[in-house]
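Reply to thread "Modeling small-molecule complexes from scratch"

Following up on the discussion above, here's a worked example others can learn from. I took a protein sequence and the SMILES for magnesium ion and predicted the complex. Inputs first:
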Amino acid sequence: MFKNKLINILLIEDEEFDVKRIKKTLEAFSAQIRIEKIVADGSTALEMLSSDEFEFDIVIMDYQITGGIRGEELIRKLKGIDPCIQIIVITKMTVNITDYSFADKLIQAGAFWYCTKYPGDIEEYIYQPTDFILSIFNAYQKKVFEKERLKSNEKIEKNINDILNLRRLIGESESIVKIKADIEKCASSDVPTIISGDSGTGKELVAYNIHYQSKRKYENFVPINCGSLPHDLVESELFGYEKGAFTGAHIEKPGLFELANNGTIFLDEITELPLAAQVKLLRVIQDGQLEKLGRTENVKVNVRIISATNKNIEEEVKAKRFREDLYYRLNVVSLSIPPLRERKEDILLLLDHFLTEISIDMGKEKPRIDDDAAQFFYNYSWPGNVREIKNVVQRLLFSGDNRINLEVATRSTGMTSTVHDKNEFNSISFPKPYDIISLKEMERLVREKYFAYVRETSSSDTEAAKKLGLAPPNFHRMCKELGLK
Ligand SMILES: Nc1ncnc2c1ncn2[C@@H]1O[C@H](COP(=O)(O)OP(=O)(O)OP(=O)(O)O)[C@@H](O)[C@H]1O
Ligand SMILES: [Mg+2]
């Protein structure tokens, strides 16, 4: 056991006779167990544990020592310095060995084990030697496990902080400051939350932030766009099915709710959910129970639900396309993100943020923006909201200009600025001869422009997909490829 590792011990004992007995008890195992330091009082022990000079695995401490800090207080302080250190307490025989509450107090304070010293007429050993040595090995094993657990927890925590840092909400407008505070509040509870806002305002980003700031952060965040699923597949995607539930169900399929168990599910474009699936969703919220296709008994799940919509959901309720009872269940807390044109002070901040971030990613120098170009960006209506700023920045960096003047700025938004005006789409502006781009790139720009235009003039993505003659999943995929989602 632990052949190559010497177990280092800090011994706290003020009686010379007992120090000798402890040394003798451990003698046979001196190749594996070393008493690194011996101190007679608590404060010296604490100093030693805090210093970088030594690395101890285990503390063996006498319960009755002289000096100020001793007993449970000393155990707590030692653990406070190094939570992974294991403490073995030795006590005089005078302490009643059947006193469970005494033992319990020591364990509660953070001790690993305790034993009562042999009477003074036994000079060879402090305690039954095999028990004593085994307890040291066990304590060491526990220390190694705890250290590993601490390390992996630190790693997970760091990963989560990295995720949050990458998905930071940029903006100093009053509404964004309020949303940041609301995110914190939402993260501290489990209540169903609905996020509304125009396309590209950051609904998914807000949902991410709620999840990764909540106690569910170590579990899955499962986003699903209800509008991208064909209606007849919604239920099996969300709730799963058993093997043989219908022809073609060759294997059991866990639904997205099962994948999100103990975590968060993000139901984007919630108004696109067919009525049958709405009923099942209501059951999940009410009873925490899933109705899995082909299964008689229900499956229990614990999932936090965040939903989002860029439609007026109350109108959908009035039109009976969305169940009123479900709406009230989902809408315990609601967050509304205003479009960029209503929080203009965020525009240049976001532009600068993406310019810095994306130029680092692309290994390019960050371009300078002329004052009149910045003014233009400030006044521009940004119909595609933050997503549009991101796309414009990508385009600006792609073009390679290291100074952004008014003309470059206008041109960069011109490629997407048509979404508001139907007629404008008819006049596709071609780049100047020296800026000629490949046919593939031009096709991409036209597609992007047209998709954005059709989306803006449709009440939902499902409708937009229909107008374009595309199946919703294909439409969803193409939007993603074009950077529109
Ligand atoms: N305040 C913000 N700070 C930084 N990035 C943002 C902010 N708001 C949005 N973004 C970024 O803009 C892009 C679009 O945001 P997101 O996908 O969350 O929008 P959405 O409201 O869900 O849009 P849609 O309705 O089209 O699904 C993402 O890349 C997101 O990271
Ligand atoms: Mg979204």
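What I'd highlight from this example: The chain has three domains: 7-151, 167-338, 341-481. The domain at 7-151 is CATH 3.40.50.2300 (Rossmann fold). Questions welcome below.
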